[in-house]
Amino acid sequence: MWVNTVVLVAITSVLFIVAVWKAQGLPVEALRNSWKTFTTAFPLIVCAFLCEGLITSLLSPEWIRKWLAEEAGWRSIVVGCIAGALTPGGPYTSFPIAMVLLKAGASVTTVVTYLTAWQLWAFTRYPLEIAFVGAPLTVLRFTTTVFVPPLAGLLAGRLSRFFL
């Protein structure tokens, strides 16, 4: 994890130096924009980490084995699909949940299914999608992607034996 932090700090430092070199007011504007993003994202991040802690505390190892671990089979895919479809928000919400599921003993199959369902099936985004592109296109998109999360999870589970 510290390598990721060092790389991000290095990239940020280089970008800041380029901004200072390019224009005098640019770093101040960048800091203002960053502050706006931070104040918007901070409550989401706090809730995501609180959710992570609650998941860790509330899910017993027995429940994880029964519903989310490799031996859960299809149950883990169903739970991953439902949880992904119902998870609101962006990556600040879903990735911490995926991380805690992995740490708690959920299978790669479950976590990939969850993340793929979150990206493709997010039920909380359907009203907005229907408003912008219409119900027929939304239904068409869902019906053409409905099998992707379970298949992605199964494929990831199989491939993880070779790559992880």
Overall pLDDT: 88
C-alpha geometry? globular
Quaternary:
single chain
Number of helices: 9
First-to-last CA distance:
17 Å
Class per helix and strand makeup: mainly alpha
Radius of gyration: 19 Å
**What profile does the largest beta sheet have?**
none
Helix and strand sequence: HHHHHHHHH
- Percent helix range: over 70%
Let me know the number of strands.
0
Strand portion, in percent?
Answer: under 5%
Total number of distinct structural domains:
2
* Unreliable residue stretches: none
Provide a short characterization of the protein structure.
The chain is mainly α and 164 residues long. It has helices at residues 2-22, 26-58, 61-67, 74-86, 91-104, 108-121, 126-133, 135-145, 148-163.
Account of the protein in words:
The chain is mainly α. It folds into 2 domains: 1-58; 60-164, no CATH class. The chain has 9 helices and no strands. The chain has helices spanning 2-22, 26-58, 61-67, 74-86, 91-104, 108-121, 126-133, 135-145, 148-163.
Helix/strand layout:
Elements: H1 2-22, H2 26-58, H3 61-67, H4 74-86, H5 91-104, H6 108-121, H7 126-133, H8 135-145, H9 148-163
Helix pairs in contact: 2-5, 4-6, 4-9, 5-6, 6-9, 7-8
For this entry, give a set of tags:
globular, mainly alpha, 2 domains, 84% helix, 164 residues, 9 helices, 0% strand
